[in-house]
Amino acid sequence: MLQSKLFTKAQKQAPAGEVSLNAQLLIRAGFVHKEMAGVYSYLPLGLRTLNKISDIIRQEMDAAGGQEIFMTVLQDRETWEKTGRWSDEVVDNWFKTELKNGTQLGLGFTHEEAIAKIMKNYVASYKDLPFYAYQIQTKFRNEARAKAGLMRGREFFMKDLYSFSKTKEEHDEFYEKMKEVYMKVFSRLGMGDKTYLTISSGGSFSKYSYEFQTVSKAGEDMIAIIDEEKRIAINKDDLTDEVLKDFAVKVDRDKLREEKSIEVGDIYSLGYKYSEAFNLKYKDESGQDQMVYMGSYGMSPSRLMGAVVELNSDAKGIIWPEAVAPFAVHLISLDQNEKALEIYKQLSQKGVEVLWDDRQIGAGEKFAEADLIGIPNRMVISAKSLTAGGVELKKRDSDQAEILPIEKLLEKFS
RNA sequence: CGGGGCGUGGUGUCAACGGCUAGCACGAGUGGUUUGGGACCAUUUAGACAGGGUUCGAAUCCCUGCGCCCCGACCA
């Protein structure tokens, strides 16, 4: 893409009062536009990154046997009354609206009820189970306080997968597998070494659940790390004798390391709660009716995008991991647009995603904006670089630059 | 939902005593210079959150509403 055509522009200053690092950088670099508190529009650069994160999640969900669907945001009252979750007393962050005729509707904040109802049409026999369905969709939560940029919004992107199993044992097997699948996603996003499987008792679905917590100063939660090797932690609030006993965990409380962390995912065993509410059952091999055992597995691409920024930046700007960078290469031509065009064309032909800064502006400005945007590979072509033997290649996270002949450069990216 | 802070061009501003033409910087436009770290000169552009009130006079004081940020609570 030609940067001269990109309608967003980098800003030197962050919006007034915006303290959140991810919001500051993403807004300044033109990835997102803040519509209102906790509500963001994704601009060309931001959408590219968001889609890359979603794609990684999608690949891993598919690999784990997930089938992608897309459910409705509009939810009808009756469905949610079956579990009591229509009530504003029970769920305090509904956005509700209504039809012209006065029928009340809600905007989905999660989809357990909706999917249980759908699956009544498709689950009849033990032969139909198990299966796993997921979606990546906008969720709406009327948070009392949106904050921390993309990390806690009122309208945000969420991957929610739901598992449907014959028995608890069958469920448990998949649940265990999802722990690994989730860690794989976080590894691919470059945050694997900071992420811990975390014991939690906070959920309303079951007594215990697991969260995935990524250590970061920007986190809203506090975890205590139990096992560094196995990457297991516990929510600080849940660090009680009872919980430790239930999980058969032995720890020396004085030696636990506590860290602030970002909740980047959560997985729940739902049991029969929703299948009972919707009478979601199947006939087993002996013809007996059995309830379906459900689980739900959440992860937010938009929050992850905020988290990646929180974890990867310096004073100059964002430093995207290759896997989620909006472009692989930022090509900067200082005075050599013709040569740059050749490189741009050749790289593009190879399928390399290139943002070419072809604008007629000062070199300093180009470098400053490139650092802010944070594309991992920077190529500079100028009279100076050509004299030195080719094109300068520099990684965003390094101060070292090397000069490569154009052919070598093209070989390097394929 | 409790508490605190705040609202001035597209952006920023601990700029402006209740009083002169609302200043400065960034951005954007035009002309020129410059060309490896947000360069420079000239010139132009564009502003008081909304509504009410006090006053001869309000960006400035008061009220209401709306919005934003932070701390806490909450977080399926």
Q: Mind summarizing the main beta sheet?
A: 5 strands, mixed, barrel
User: Rounded to an integer, what's the Rg over CA atoms?
Assistant: 24 Å
Mean pLDDT value:
92
Shape, principal axes of CA atoms: elongated
Using DSSP, what is the number of strands? 23
Helix amount, in percent? 25-40%
Estimated share of beta-strand residues: 25-35%
Reported CATH architecture of the largest domain? 2-Layer Sandwich
Q: What is the fourth-level CATH superfamily of the largest domain?
A: Bira Bifunctional Protein, Domain 2
- Spatial strand sequence of the major β-sheet: 9-10-13-11-12
Q: Which regions are unreliable across 5 or more consecutive residues at pLDDT < 50?
A: none
**Regarding quaternary structure, how should these chains be classified?**
single chain
List keywords for this structure.
RNA-binding, five-stranded mixed beta barrel, 2 domains, 23 strands, alpha+beta, 414 residues, single chain, Rossmann fold, five-stranded mixed sheet
Overview of this protein structure:
α2 (44-63) runs antiparallel to α5 and α2 (44-63) packs across α8 (301-311). The chain is an alpha+beta fold. It has 2 domains: 21-314, BirA Bifunctional Protein, domain 2, CATH 3.30.930; 327-412, Rossmann fold, CATH 3.40.50. The strands form 6 sheets. The chain has a 5-stranded mixed barrel. It has a 5-stranded mixed sheet with strand order 20-19-21-22-23, sandwiched between helices. It has a 3-stranded antiparallel sheet with strand order 4-6-5. The protein is elongated. The two termini are 17 Å apart. It is 29% helix and 30% strand. The model has no long low-confidence stretch (mean pLDDT 92).
